[in-house]
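Z., the sequence and structure:
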Amino acid sequence: MKIIIVGGGKVGAQLAKECRQLGYQVALIEYERSRGEKLRRELGIPVVIGDGTDPQVMKAAGAEEVDIVVAVTDDDQDNLIVCQQAERRFKAKRTLALVNNPGNEKLFSWLGVNQVIGPTSLILGLIQGTVDMQQTTTLWMQGIKDLKMIQVKINPGAPAVNLRVRDLNLPNQCILVTIVRGETAIVPGGNTCIKAGDLVFALTHPSVEAEVEKVLVGTKLEKD
């Protein structure tokens, strides 16, 4: 089985070590060169230095023949993009993503990540034998129905201009899905920079919609 792990922090490094011990073919992608080179020496596995959201970096790690892609960086936006790219571009059989902000778990599932790993899902997994699963499923589906897609035009002078996505103080339960810049649609990662004139599409829960708009444009948008 071929596994690619994106993110060489404590979780990614330990996961790579244990997968290798189980006999799996493992490759690791790490953004920081010094950490990546250290992990290559310590783990004895292929380590590709670069941004896991970059298709060429994924390809260098063997994504064209991958079975499972696991995204465990500390940036939810990047983890989502890695999994979407692995499934849609490289036809990975399974994608797993670490969710650092619990409020994003439903969003990741709604956007197609096969398995979402986060505090809430782990706890639910431990208590599955005692909870009413029919009621849990009903509540989960209600949460999905409550999500909505919003679009925000970034005007010159907006607080988000020239900031990277990872530096935006976006609330939980919000993921930027697409940025339209001119005639180009961009799937944003954590390092994607917001520019004046961008049209930003975000999936969000209505309860944080006003906060999202404030972060991006400074004030709540007027509704038609």
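Residues 147-217 form a domain with the Alpha-Beta Plaits fold (CATH 3.30.70.1450). Residues 116 and 122 are 9 Å apart (CA to CA).

Let me know what you think.
H.
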